Amino acid sequence: MKIKMLPNWGKKIGLSLFFIGFFVVFTAVNSRKSLCEGYNSHNTNTTEIIDLEPVFIEKWFGESAVHLFEVLTILGLLIYMLSKEKIEDDYINKLRLESYQLTSIIVLVLSLGIYALSENLKLSIDTFATLFLMSYLIIFALKKRVY
């Protein structure tokens, strides 16, 4: 079965989009605030309130632009995932299918586990999409190296 895929140069475009989006999202105020809370073990007893100013895209265009860059990050991963390898053959297609199946099972089990164990945890859909795409790429890379 032939699978329609993007050309190999799509990997470069996908990685570029991913890193641009990741850089903007990582420098957003909410990301930096979450990083500081994690570093302080979310210690709410501190009298010091962290006042972070918006930088780069968030400063000029607002919070909605940061959301667009979150989407850009996912789009970059998707383009990378759907691009051909330099040497594309039936064996790579088989590895791709096995990786997709394993990733689907792992992410579904993790999602159900997270949902069952923590009632008040609020995660957005982009968290699960990024988890799925990243785990697929990691599993596919490991399978390529092992075989």
SSE layout and pairings?
Blueprint lengths: L9 H17 L2 H11 L16 H6 L1 H19 L8 H28 L7 H22 L1
Largest sheet: none
- List the secondary-structure elements in sequence, H or E: HHHHHH
Residue stretches low in confidence (pLDDT < 50, at least 5 long) are none
Strand content: under 5%
* Rounded mean pLDDT score: 81
Q: Please compute the radius of gyration using only Cα atoms.
A: 19 Å
Question: How would you describe this structure to a colleague?
Answer:
This protein is mainly alpha-helical and 147 residues long. The chain folds into 2 domains: 1-84, no CATH class; 86-147, no CATH class. The protein is 70% helix and 0% strand. It contains 6 helices and no strands. Helix 1 packs antiparallel against helix 4, helix 4 packs parallel to helix 6 (125-146) and helix 5 (90-117) crosses helix 6 (125-146). The mean pLDDT is 81.
Keywords, please?
single chain; flat; mainly alpha
Structure, briefly:
The protein is 70% helix and 0% strand.
